[in-house]
Specification:
Distance between the termini of chain A: 45 Å
Low-confidence stretches of chain A: none
Number of domains of chain A: 2
Structural class of chain A: mainly alpha
Largest sheet of chain A: none
Radius of gyration of chain A: 26 Å
Strand content of chain A: under 5%
Number of helices of chain A: 13
Oligomer: homodimer
Helix content of chain A: over 70%
Order of helices and strands of chain A: HHHHHHHHHHHHH
Mean pLDDT of chain A: 84
Shape of chain A: elongated
Number of strands of chain A: 0
Chain lengths: 404, 404
């Protein structure tokens, strides 16, 4: 029969297993981040290409597609390595479901590019297709963050996810601006632009709440770069354009270049986050291994018989040290659980919005995009945060709707 | 390179793995429930024994100790089977930490019984020792419920946990009454008694919110049994006793028998819950296996080459069916996640109370019991629910305390 102490050892072994799993997830997240970055670039290039009736960025588009394909190959290989049996991955049923959706999106990329090359679809639709694919990749990152049960690593993953999500809104802003500055007409342009700015701010705020100091410092320095001020001016100008009017060509170029520079700089912060996350995982694994070694040493002292015929007696001192370990373990569990709850609250906001969106889709038979748009408009009209509107919708449904 | 479809299959395989794990946890929970029941009985018997200066229940005590030891042996064997490597159990680091604490408590049981037999400790302390051990066992059940990520099974486990917790408060009420009716003095007796009644009601309310209809019906019928009315009368009488006054001996016997009958009847509801949980797990596993077979059939159609030299082409119909599966998977994931959030909210209440207790213990250097007592008193004085007081304490600490 196993002793209390051997279960303490087992708990520690499981903790190491969970941390190793998190280290793998973290590597996956940073690889996915690189693919997202490349796809964001291809989205922006494609918009300029479509907006200029194929006159500009044809070559860049081909180069960028190659880069995306290469990174996608890496990501797919990593996905393949993840699965080694039904118990191999925590949260596997959700994670693999998300991965299946991403792979389907990647399979459709070639067809999408063909239609873009032949200028068979408007920039708005091309943007939407890239947004869907990237949002699927972000959902993979979200599952990785949501399944972490080490508070420190969970903090780092929440910071990372929110930074990536904020960067994606910045990418969507670049694409929107690219359409506007080449003279295209975009429905609800001013409102959508403002929403994208608000959502970036919200994401970067959560990132700032959870990020480590080095990444935060790198981010703060970027915010004070002089080029960012110029981008603010273009933002202001772009939002007031009504579309269809002739615009100086170099403004569009300046917008695209300025945004790209900003997003590429974000990529550096993301790399810092990824490097810190990797180091944190290694540190936590090393630390937990050291604690495990201590416990195993006590365990082997206990099981070593003092004479060949009698089991080792547990002296009062050893008994006390087991008791101390149990108490430490218990308060550690409690502290970890408390901290994890705090970190998870930041992830819940996304869940609330997704849920409200789902309710709207079902109740009004809307597409995902349309449901999201409706939510955003309600938030604008009521001058509330998106998540507050989402919460009200869920509450109303819980009060009014049938119990499911 | 694996396809989107093979990841859908992997997701389903993981889901089956997770469900099988839940089936094992559910069996463990129901076995732990039997041990808790036996320990509750031993606690009550020990109190009568101590209260009567060893004159009554000496024989029952010996019989009951044997029953407890036998069940503890079963539970320990099941604990031992759980661990087969660091990836074998979801949430292993927390679960095994809780198990270690329980094993330590079981190891101390023999010493506790000796002191009770020699009447070396007051009934209040004996009760407290049993309460600690049982609360450790309930924490194991809680971890099992908290790690479930199938909403239906999670509902059933939340109902089960709350029922077991409510039954334990009923057991504590029996012990308290047993002390009072043998003429013992109990500090804050009336207040503690009322708290135990309130907490039972709260737990059984959550149970009623999440239980399946058959268990709920079994429970409702018990509530209308005529003997329950008699127990209410004794409750009322007991709470007004000031202690130390001479009481008719048969009142104490009637109280003990009435409570025991009620608690034994609860055990039947618990058995119904356990049987339904087992059936639910089997049904969910069978259902998911059938879905997996469908997906595997499509996958093997795809990988069967039409000629030895060419891979199978994906026809438009098959392409559509993969798309439909992806969409189904995605909305299933969303629906499961939403429902799970609702169920988990019921578990959070416990977490909030535990956290507030921890804060009080640290801030005022209190023992766990003293911190809990302080919380209960504050709830009484402010005429609020325990969880509301706990929430205020956490909020105040978040506002006032240093950021950890």
């Amino acid at each position: 029969m196993k002793s209390a102490l051997s279960f303490l050892v087992a708990a520690r072994e499981c903790e190491i297993g969970e941390l190793e799993q998190l280290a793998l997830s973290s590597e996956l997240v940073s690889l996915v981040g690189r693919l997202i970055h490349a796809l964001q670039k291809e989205r922006g290039i494609s918009n300029v290409y479509l907006g200029s009736q194929g006159k500009r960025f044809a070559e860049q588009r081909a180069v960028q597609a190659l880069e995306c394909d290469e990174l996608a190959l890496h990501v797919r290989r990593r996905f393949d390595e993840l699965y080694s049996g039904p118990h191999s991955v925590r949260n596997g049923s959700r994670l693999f479901g998300r991965i299946a959706a991403v792979l389907h999106g990647l399979d459709e990329l070639a067809g999408l590019r063909e239609r873009i090359g032949a200028q068979l679809l408007p920039a708005v639709e091309s943007t939407a297709a890239f947004v869907r694919l990237i949002s699927g990749l972000l959902a993979v990152v979200f599952e990785a963050a949501d399944s972490a049960n080490d508070p420190q690593i969970s903090r780092a993953l929440v910071a990372m996810f929110n930074f990536m999500q904020g960067k994606e809104f910045a990418g969507q802003e670049r694409a929107l601006g690219a359409m506007v500055f080449v003279g295209g007409t975009v429905a609800d342009c001013e409102q959508r632009w403002q929403q994208l700015i608000d959502m970036q701010e919200r994401c970067f705020q959560v990132f700032a709440d959870f990020a480590d100091p080095t990444a935060l410092e790198a981010w703060r320095q970027q915010q004070h770069a002089p080029k960012f001020a110029e981008l603010q001016r273009l933002r202001h100008l772009g939002r007031s354009l009504r579309g269809g009017a002739p615009i100086e060509a170099q403004l569009g170029q300046a917008w695209y270049d300025g945004c790209t520079e900003r997003i590429d700089a974000m990529r550096i912060v993301e790399d810092t986050l990824a490097a810190n996350l990797r180091a944190l995982c290694e540190r936590r694994i090393e630390q937990t291994r050291a604690e495990l070694r201590d416990q195993q040493a006590i365990l082997s002292t206990l099981s070593r018989p003092t004479s060949p015929h009698a089991p080792a007696p547990i002296g009062p001192q050893l008994e006390r040290s087991i008791l101390v370990m149990l108490q430490e373990q218990s308060s550690r569990l409690q502290a970890m659980s408390d901290e994890l709850d705090t970190v998870r609250a930041a992830l819940n906001e996304r869940k609330v919005i997704e849920r409200a969106k789902g309710l709207l889709m079902a109740a009004r038979r809307l597409s995902e995009d349309a449901a999201y748009k409706l939510l955003r408009e309600a938030a604008m009209n009521q001058n509330r945060r998106l998540v507050d509107v989402a919460e009200r919708i869920i509450e109303a449904r819980d009060l009014l709707g049938p119990k499911s």
